[in-house]
Amino acid sequence: MNNAEQALAYFQEGFVCSQALFATFGEKLGLDREAALKIAEPFGAGMSCMAETCGAVTGAFMVIGLKYGRVEPGDEAAKEKTRALVKKFVSEFKVLHNSIACKELLGVDISTPEGMERVEKEGLCDTLCNKFIRDAVEILEKNLF
Questions:
Q1: Residue 129 CB neighbour total at 10 angstroms
Q2: Domains in the chain, number
Q3: From CA 15, how far away is CA 114, in angstroms rounded?
């Protein structure tokens, strides 16, 4: 199973988008599955259903941090590399989708009961969120691995 298939499998199992991304790559980078799933939980659905930054995007940010983030306070090179990769990721994601904000990507504000109802009724997660996850994986693979 490739990374996109694995991330989509996590998502179809019922994990949120941030968990799908972070657990898929986290395991490959030495983080155990349970820890990755727990860490990424609050970032799904646009930061805990607040319809802010897309969970596929925040999951990707965590992957970048896990791979390149600094572990020494004075490691400016690691800090700058991590920030540059995040900016590159965002730039490439925006080329594909014009935004990284969940409510803009879905065209629905899932922080409201009406918005969440519409997402479920129209199956937006099955179509749009799957695409965002797949695209986030492809951007990560192209730039990190």
A1: 25
A2: 1
A3: 22
